[in-house]
Automatic annotation (TrEMBL):
<dbReference type="InterPro" id="IPR015590">
    <property type="entry name" value="Aldehyde_DH_dom"/>
</dbReference>
<dbReference type="InterPro" id="IPR050740">
    <property type="entry name" value="Aldehyde_DH_Superfamily"/>
</dbReference>
<feature type="domain" description="Aldehyde dehydrogenase">
    <location>
        <begin position="25"/>
        <end position="479"/>
    </location>
</feature>
<dbReference type="InterPro" id="IPR016161">
    <property type="entry name" value="Ald_DH/histidinol_DH"/>
</dbReference>
<dbReference type="GO" id="GO:0016620">
    <property type="term" value="F:oxidoreductase activity, acting on the aldehyde or oxo group of donors, NAD or NADP as acceptor"/>
</dbReference>
<dbReference type="Pfam" id="PF00171">
    <property type="entry name" value="Aldedh"/>
</dbReference>
<dbReference type="InterPro" id="IPR016163">
    <property type="entry name" value="Ald_DH_C"/>
</dbReference>
<protein>
    <submittedName>
        <fullName>NADP-dependent glyceraldehyde-3-phosphate dehydrogenase</fullName>
    </submittedName>
</protein>
<comment type="similarity">
    <text>Belongs to the aldehyde dehydrogenase family.</text>
</comment>
<keyword id="KW-0560">Oxidoreductase</keyword>
<dbReference type="InterPro" id="IPR016162">
    <property type="entry name" value="Ald_DH_N"/>
</dbReference>
<dbReference type="InterPro" id="IPR016160">
    <property type="entry name" value="Ald_DH_CS_CYS"/>
</dbReference>
Amino acid sequence: EIHQKTYLVNGELKEWNGNTSQVVSTISSTKEYAPTVLGSIPDMGEAEAMEALDSATAAYNKGQGVWPTMKVKDRIECMEAFVKRMEEKREEVVKLLMWEIGKNEADSYKEFDRTVEYIYDTIEDYKQLDRNSAKFQKHDGVYAHIRRGPLGVVLCLGPYNYPLNETFALLIPAIIMGNTTIFKPAKHGVLLITPLLEAFQSSFPKGVVNILFGRGRAVAAPIMKTGKVDVLALIGNSKSANALQEQHPKSNRLRLVLGLEAKNPAIILPDADLDLTVNECIAGTLSFNGQRCTALKVIYVHEDVKDEFLKRFSEKVDALKFGNPWDEGAKLTPLPEPGKPEYIQELLDDAKAKGAKIKNKKGGKHKNNYIWPAVLHPVTKDMRVYEEEQFGPIIPVLSFTDIEQPLDDMAESNYGQQVSLFGKDVYTLSPLIDTLANLVCRVNLNSSCQRGPDVYPFTGRKDSAQSTLSVHDALRSFSIRTFVAFKDN
Ligand code: G3H
């Protein structure tokens, strides 16, 4: 068991003697599928939140602190020192990733390695950015020396599905651009920050990174209320993002860097290659059991190929291997959120009461959080599963005869992240791609939705995102262009 007893504030790993909360994994070694206790974390509140805020504010010191004024070369050295120390913790962090959130072994290693690569790529891009912004420009007799500067204090909150990769996709660019940060790990995937605390502490000047533990509301809300946060960086749900944003007394001054919900559809045209489509839809709907904002969360299949698609897709779903994260070839693993089986059951009951059927034999069966995916059809718009993001292994399937139907649904949707389009005829696909690109931010042709490679812009329309993340874009999201101008006289 790991009992996290310190937190990082003002460059110090301070002892915590207050209340703690248990960290529990839904991975079980008992016949009854009882959860496993992994350890505990501090249950922090307003006092520690203010300590972290004061530390970050002092380190930024109105833009005059050591960190925001540090030479680019030196800031890079700190970041390189951090990533090297982080790499030494690979095995420890990956093991915790598996236990805490149930991500399978291959994907857990991938998450770690992808994060390390993300940091190295960010360093390279930062060097490039710095070189570019050092250039002079001249227009109409006015010279400008344009640079990129930090924004101030960043409050950073990451999600449980990528507690390392997505959290660091916010934190790392925020730090390297010269901001100071307060970071609270996600509820699940929190203990894996423990092995990295020392790396943060020893790599950056005091106050640049402050790490708190506890419930989001207990620590993040008081910080926002002070009005001293310049950037709210959050990947998670819009409810939490809105609630925090509202706490800020001058929210118009707050920069938002948000990755939020999505309801990415797949559209399967009658001439689609069905083998490829089924495989991509399996990956798109069920990687990490559907707990990805980029997951395919609704499938529109043309009536002409509906039956064949449903048959092949359902068989493939039932053939997937269930297991614990370290079991060889396990594609489906237990979901980490304690209330999830009940929630999934509610959605299935609601859909069934409104006329949907579970098409795969094993669909919806569960032992605690070991939940089999359910392929649902026909799904209608009045069903909760159509509306709610669900972040789990339910796959709603709708059929269509007129392409306007999925397009209208997408236009009406509150979300606009990505779409997957399956088909062959280039004269049909080409205009459709143009239309889809105005509804979402990424059109995946004959492939499932995904965020990576991490150099591509990751964003969304409507309630799906604010600002853009990716190696390249995040440096811009966490900075502002300023310039010195002078005349040719
Ligand atoms: O939860 C949303 C993640 O950004 C998904 O990332 O497409 O790499 O799995 P991914």
